[in-house]
Amino acid sequence: MSSVIDEDDVSGLGGVHIKYLLHCPRQLWLYMRGYRPEQRSASVQYGEAVDETTYTRRRDLDLGEAKIDWVTTGAVIHETKSSRAPSEQHEAQVRHYCLLLARRGVNVRGGVVHYPLIRRTVEVAWDASAKALAEETESRARDVIASPTAPPRLDRRKCRGCSYVDYCWSG
Ligand code: SF4
């Protein structure tokens, strides 16, 4: 296992880092050291396909460290998920995008997570407590990344479906 962190990734944390942190700190740690099996996974490709076909009129926003699905007038950040289950991880990702935009001087109003497969949306507030939460999450991600050793594995049952399962549990 390499202990070298990809410098491009450490300069700014994007949505994927927050997603991995909240799923499993070990996954974030491994990801930052170049282990990325998820890039080729069927579920990710499926997610991208849903994402591409569901909304045709939108404006992507590429911040470098994060690619936001689209931002509507008044600075409302939108994120589309192929999941059928709304989750706190998705909201945290949107809060992180709010934080990144706010740091660039944008007067962010909030966010919306879209779940086209279940025709639901979840609103994500952006206020002082949401900002504090986003900053705390980001700081936790940085602590995990800086750790010299890999965080422990999750309970095996929670690893089901994780693309790192072969790495963590083989041998
Ligand atoms: S397989 Fe389990 S321990 Fe390993 S990264 Fe995935 S969730 Fe974490």
- Specify the CATH class: Alpha Beta
Number of helices: 7
| CATH topology (fold) name | Lambda Exonuclease, Chain A
Helix content estimate: 40-55%
User: Structural class of the secondary elements?
Assistant: alpha+beta
Order of helices and strands: HHHHEEEEHEEHH
Say how many strands there are. 6
Gap between N and C termini, in Å?
A: 14 Å
Question: What ligands does this structure carry?
Answer: iron/sulfur cluster
Strand content: 5-15%
Mean pLDDT: 83
CATH-derived architecture: Alpha-Beta Complex
- Main sheet: strand order: 3-4-5-6
Biggest sheet statistics: 4 strands, mixed
Q: How would you describe the shape?
A: globular
CA radius of gyration is 16 Å
Total domain modules:
1
Low-confidence stretches: 52-57
Kindly describe this structure:
This protein has 171 residues and is α+β, with helices and mostly antiparallel strands. It has a single domain, classed as Lambda Exonuclease, Chain A (Alpha-Beta Complex), CATH 3.90.320. It is built from seven helices and six strands; from the N terminus they run H-H-H-H-E-E-E-E-H-E-E-H-H. The protein has helices at residues 7-11, 15-23, 25-32, 42-54, 88-103, 128-146, 165-169; strands at 61-62, 67-68, 70-72, 76-80, 110-115, 120-125. A four-stranded mixed sheet has the order 3-4-5-6, covered by helices on one side. It has a two-stranded antiparallel ribbon with strand order 1-2. A hairpin with a 3-residue loop joins strand 3 (70-72) and strand 4 (76-80). Helix 2 packs antiparallel against helix 5, helix 3 (25-32) packs across helix 6 (128-146) and helix 5 crosses helix 6 (128-146). It starts with 6 loop residues before the first helix and ends with a helix. The model is unreliable at 52-57 (pLDDT under 50). Iron/sulfur cluster binds at residues 24, 26-27, 153-154, 159, 162, 164-165, 168.
